[in-house]
Structure formats: structure tokens, C-alpha cells
Design a protein that fits this description.
One of its GO terms (molecular function) is hydrolase activity. With 270 residues, the protein is an alpha/beta fold. It contains six helices and 15 strands. Helix content is 23%, strand content 28%. The two termini are 25 Å apart.
Length: 270
């Protein structure tokens, strides 16, 4: 991959309760189609319903095979010819009476569903997602021509052990969709840079704009390199953020500053 540039685009869309989920799907699909020529496009967490709109989770639940968001995003990825991390949806499995999951979807450029990841760490303590959704149990990576993606979602960011396991599974880029609240924006910035620095990976973190269930969103989607430098950062409003990445910088950083080889606690067998 040395020297080959990867064009990554984060779609920090606004989630407005006055806009129907169907209208937002159409708008998101149009934004994806406008990114033809990109290698990877990323959407935020739970953008069809809103990450904090827990009262709407059950009514907004979908299937992954033929659900409205999966269908719309599959078609958009195919039309644009891009790898599309379509953020996450409220998945119900088995349909129609199974538990709910916060599930991220990765589509290949031909529109096929390549990988799905169920969020492991559920936010809310004794409310919202924490009690309404089941947690995933699998560490998930996806090998793309541009590099190996490690998949995580929002609250997962606060649990560094998950990201060590993703690195052990080969991750070179972390893709983190989120619905992060504005009042904890400082944590968002610090944690994203920490995950990049400690794991020597690119971090592509896509948040939402707008307000979910009276919770203002932070926005500030970010792309961070393996040394921890912020390559691009959005503002608080809806924004399309595009950056060119050199995937070879992961191996170069790990070679120049080989901190990962000095791991002792929790390190995989050599």
C-alpha cells in the first residue's frame, strides 16, 4: 500500500426530529452518491432515528436483510462505487420479536453487505440504550484493498481494551461512528487522539450534527493519523469532511517508534 492515497469522506449529517427517517435516508443516500471517486465514505451512529431518541428505537428497528436503511445504503454504495460504512441502525434479530442491537453496516462498492458490527458497550447506565438493547460480543475487522478497518461505535471509545484487540486482529484504521453529546466534546477529542496514538492507527470518527431527544450533538468529526495529528476536523453543523490518507504511514510509524512491540500486559503470544 506504500504511497497509495486513500480518499476518505465523513458525512456529518444533521439529525432533526422534524425530518422523517425516510426523508433522511433519501438525503443521506444523495450525499453518498455525490462522493463518487472516494475510496471510503462514513456515516454517523443511529442517524435514521437519533442516538439519544431511545423512545423511538423499537419503532425504528430494522432488519439487515431488506430493511429500509440497508436497502438505501446498498444502492447508494453501488451507485457511487465506494466502500460505505453506513453508520449504525437499530437492528432487531431475529425478526420480528428478537432483541435490539446497535449495528454498524459496511457495504462493498458493488452494494453487498460486507461486514456488520454490533456495538459491544451500550451507553446509558440504567437507561436508554443500556437497557433497551443487547450488546454485541465480537471484535470485528474488515480487510479492504486500502487496509484493515477496525470497527467500533461511540461509547466503545471509552474502553481501550477493545482497540488493543482490534490492533491484534490487524486493524490499521479505526472507523468510529458516533452520536456524541456536545457537553462532552472535550472527551471526544482527547479519547480519539489517545486511541490513534496508543495503537498507531488512523482514526476516522464521524459524529452527528443537530439535536436528538433534546440532546445537542457535538459534531466535530475527525480524522487523526497514527502519530496523533489531527488531519481534518469538522465544525458543529452538518458538514462533508474529506481527507487524503497514506496507509503506509501506519507501518512507518510503528517501525520508527515501535512502542507496540514493548507491550507486556495483555500482549498476544509472540
Amino acid at each position: 500500500m506504500g504511497g497509495v492515497q486513500v480518499r476518505a469522506t465523513l458525512l456529518q449529517i444533521e439529525v432533526d426530529p422534524a425530518e422523517t427517517a425516510a426523508d433522511r435516508r433519501r438525503r443521506a443516500a444523495a450525499l453518498v452518491r455525490a462522493q463518487a471517486g472516494a475510496d471510503l465514505v462514513v456515516l454517523p451512529e443511529l442517524w435514521p432515528v437519533g442516538a439519544f431518541a431511545s423512545d423511538d428505537f423499537a419503532a425504528g428497528a430494522e432488519r439487515l436483510d431488506g430493511g429500509p436503511t440497508a436497502e438505501a445504503m446498498s444502492a447508494a454504495a453501488r451507485d457511487a462505487g465506494v466502500w460505505l460504512h453506513a453508520g449504525s441502525v437499530v437492528e432487531r434479530d431475529p425478526w420480528p420479536d428478537g432483541p435490539l442491537y446497535n449495528t454498524s453496516l459496511l457495504f462493498a462498492p458493488d452494494g453487498t453487505l460486507h461486514t456488520a458490527y454490533r456495538k459491544i458497550h451500550r451507553f446509558g447506565f440504567d437507561r436508554g440504550e443500556a437497557v433497551l438493547m443487547a450488546g454485541g460480543s465480537r471484535i470485528v475487522t474488515a480487510a479492504l484493498p486500502q487496509g484493515v478497518l477496525g470497527l467500533a461505535t461511540c461509547y466503545d471509545l471509552r474502553f481501550p481494551e477493545q482497540f488493543r484487540l482490534l490492533v491484534d486482529a490487524g486493524a490499521e484504521m479505526l472507523v468510529i461512528p458516533a452520536g456524541w453529546p456536545a457537553r462532552r466534546l472535550a472527551h471526544w477529542r482527547v479519547l480519539l487522539q489517545a486511541r490513534a496514538i496508543e495503537n498507531q492507527v488512523f482514526v476516522l470518527a464521524c459524529g452527528t450534527a443537530g439535536t436528538h431527544a433534546d440532546v445537542p450533538q457535538a459534531g466535530h468529526s475527525m480524522v487523526i493519523d497514527p502519530w496523533g495529528a489531527v488531519l481534518a476536523e469538522a465544525g458543529a453543523a452538518e458538514e462533508v469532511l474529506t481527507v487524503e490518507l497514506d496507509p503506509s504511514r501506519v507501518a512507518a510509524t510503528r517501525s520508527d517508534f515501535p512502542v507496540l512491540r514493548d507491550r507486556v500486559l495483555g500482549a498476544p503470544p509472540r
